[in-house]
Amino acid sequence: MNGLLNFIRRLGAAAVEGVWRIGFAARFFMLLLRHSGQSLTRIHLTVREIYFSGVLSLLIIVVSGLFVGMVLGLQGYETLQRYGSGDALGVLVSLSLTRELGPVVAGLLFASRAGLAVTAEIGLMKTTEQLDAMDMMAVNPIARVVAPRFWGGVISMPLLAALFSAMGVFGGWLIGVVFIGVDDGAFWSQMQAAVDFRFDIMNGVIKSFVFGATVALIAVFEGYDCTPTAEGLSRAITRTVVTSALAILALDFVLTSLMFRGQS
Amino acid sequence: MRRTTLDLWVGFFVVIGVAALMFLAFKVGNLGAANGGETYLVTGQFDNIGGLKVRAPVKSAGVVVGRVKEIRFDSKTYRAVVSLSLDATYQFPRDTIGTILTSGLLGEQYVGLEPGGDEAMLKTGDALQITQSAVVLEKLIGQFMFDKAAEGSAPAN
User: Fold this and answer.
1) pTM over 0.95
2) DSSP of A205-227, one letter per residue?
């Protein structure tokens, strides 16, 4: 009996803790937005963060995009060939990349490459009391440290996702047209007939934008909220990656069901 | 790192990011050709549209001349009303016939336009006078079986 009560009590504590964290994250987000002015007026702060989260993620995004596209080319051709429509390879590669794989995989890579670094940086600043020191010097740490990192992520992510999709299409073309020998004209023309700019590509861009904002918010929040110990920092970093991945996949389902429901 | 080098790298990043987006828009999505030019709207009433979807192509002689813009159900006539957005560079006579066709055996459905001989051309808001519905496979098979059965029983009598 006592064990059951204890279990329920622990469940309740976990629920309260979860709701409290969500509320804190929402208030943190509002605070962040209110102090975002400085990251625009002193643009070099944001530019520096775009360098760290965007430019340094270029290599992993380009290489992964290429490989994902090449695998799609091989596997897609294998399957399409059975139905005698190997020419539709371009459609398969481009639609799966622009609608789903581009934003989602780029988001996951972005979370583990850039989001993690942001959490570690802010967490370490908190652990070594640099944020408190800034506060003492009347420099708002949210405006000076957190907001530029958030906006840097928001700006970088759609560009990285577009690059990922473009590299993927190139990879699919490389395998399909150059190695397997699908007709070049059929590859591009079927793709162009099937892919709609507003419906497929813009929705992909919207998705990547939402994922970028989500990952950036989770990363800065976990860093800012971390327990200022070595152990707390490592736990915050783990939480960033896990929460970002779950948030991206869940949001992707929600966005897909809103955007593509009952159409084509 | 020095500020100018940093700016250079970020500029480079933004340029190739935007270039990738342009590549997706123009080479993959074919933005320039698809949305260029003006269009005019024509409607047509069909008894059965089969599996026709919004954004399906409208073809004449196999060339894409427009897209299906909207499909709704008219509760007065109990027929489907299909709005076609046609490229303004292609003009069709007023007695053009609209047919719902299927590309290949398992392909997507599209609207085929067969031009008539009228002097006057279709304008925005006009309706196609003659339409032909989609072929429904179940009906076709049912009719075939009915015919076979009738054929089989005929010599017996």
Assistant:
1) no
2) HHHHHHHHHHHHHHHHHHHHHS-
Q: What is the ipTM of this complex?
A: 0.81
Please check whether residues B47 and B121 belong to one and the same domain: yes
Is there a single domain that holds both residue B5 and residue B56?
no
Expressed as residue numbers, the domain containing B47 is 38-142
A187 secondary structure, DSSP code: H
A250 compared with B29, residue with greater pLDDT: A250
Whole-angstrom Cα Rg for chain B: 24
Residues of chain A contacting B6 with CB distance shorter than 8 Å: 47-48, 51
Same domain, B87 and B133: yes
Q: Which of B10, B16, B26, B71 would you mutate first to test chain A, the one with the most A CBs within 10 A?
A: B10
The β-bridge relationship of strands B97-102 and B109-114 is antiparallel
Joined tokens for residue B131: 């339409």
Q: Are residues B47 and B93 in the same domain?
A: yes
Measured at the CA of A94, the angle between CA A160 and CA B104, to 5 degrees, comes to 170
Q: Does some domain include residue B151?
A: no
Residue B10 within any structural domain of the chain: yes
pLDDT in tens, A133-180: 998 998 888 888 999 999 999 999 999 999 999 999 999 999 999 999
B46 and B31 share one domain? no
Is B33 in contact with A176 (CB distance < 8 Å)? no
- Domain range list for chain A: 35-259
Q: Which residue of B has its CA nearest to A262?
A: B53
